[in-house]
Write a structure and sequence with these properties.
By secondary structure, this protein is of the alpha/beta class. The protein is 57% helix and 8% strand. The longest helix is centred in the last third of the chain and has 41 residues, at 237-277.
């Protein structure tokens, strides 16, 4: 994948900007983006009462061929002007190639989009496909490279049901990003079913994924090197519940056994302490050269 060098885009100062008042009919929206009605109506109200605070950005590269300026960013402001019956709008005119115009549009969208949304994930994926490096994306979004990689993984490997679930508010984006780390679609479906059944939450997702991974490993060992993997499709929600209960019991048994051993150790240390405080026993230890011992510290000090 070819990356666009950072020095290819020169920062243009305010004095060098080409600001123009252009007819709205000469501006065409190339990359349309849906926005909520509430946000749009707020744009309309603000522009109607206060005017246009920030000019929209347009590209004149194809003006000679099409007779149109192509919108780079500011679709909401442009549509608000149309609804208010305005015929002209203030524009920041650029002359860039199609690829750079798309990147500018996506960069503007990302800056205005909450990170925990599917729209953010899609725009990050588009910018990466257009050749933007993870380092540049990190600078644009203020997010670490690993964070961005997981979002791109969601768009590349996420099951359609998983992505639609995020869009419809069924699954939180955090759950979707983690679930998409499983390349096996059947695993993703199992995780989603478990979420629907209230078995999985964002807090216990990692632990339950380990249970499923262990089951996958057992299935591979049973099926041999050929890796037919017949075990997983038969691995149902009910079997997952059984495994979770079994793991919980094992954990509880481990905690109980550890507590019992600690109690026995504490009783033994207390008995030793009491014996050492007995003068006759102390004399006996001294006569045998056993009175001195390595010092103990912390919880078990005697």
């Amino acid at each position: 994948m070819e990356e666009i060098p950072m020095d290819e885009v020169r920062i243009v100062g305010i004095k060098e900007r080409d600001y123009q008042i252009l007819p709205i009919e000469m501006i065409v929206v190339v990359q349309s983006r849906w926005r909520g009605k509430r946000q749009f109506q707020e744009n309309v109200r603000s522009i109607d009462q206060l005017g246009l605070y920030q000019p929209i950005q347009v590209n004149k590269r194809n003006l000679a061929q099409t007779g149109k300026y192509e919108l780079i960013c500011g679709q909401g402001r442009l549509e608000a002007h149309k609804q208010l019956g305005k015929t002209e709008i203030k524009c920041d005119v650029w002359d860039v190639d199609d690829r750079r115009a798309i990147l500018m549009t996506l960069g503007e969208n990302i800056a205005r989009t909450p990170p925990g949304s599917i729209v953010f994930a899609r725009d990050i994926k588009k910018m990466r496909d257009l050749g933007e490096s993870f380092e540049t994306l990190s600078q644009i979004t203020g997010k670490c490279v690993e964070y961005l990689q997981k979002y791109i993984c969601l768009m590349e490997q996420g099951e359609e049901r998983l992505i639609k679930g995020v869009e419809d508010g069924v699954f939180p984006i955090k759950f979707a990003v983690e679930a998409a780390q499983s390349k096996d679609r059947s695993v993703q479906h199992l995780l989603m079913d478990a979420f629907d059944n209230g078995i999985i939450t964002c807090s216990n997702l990692g632990r339950i994924r380990r249970i499923i991974d262990d089951r996958l490993k057992i299935g591979k060992e049973i099926n041999g090197p050929s890796g037919k993997r017949n075990a997983l499709p038969q691995y149902t929600i009910d079997k997952l519940k059984v495994d979770i209960r079994q793991m919980t019991k094992q954990k509880e048994a481990f905690v109980f056994e550890a507590g019992q051993k600690e109690n026995r150790l504490m009783r033994m240390l207390l008995a030793i302490k009491q014996l050492r405080e007995d003068s006759e026993f102390a004399k006996l230890l001294q006569s045998e050269g056993l009175f001195e011992h390595p010092p103990l510290s912390g919880t078990y000090a005697v």
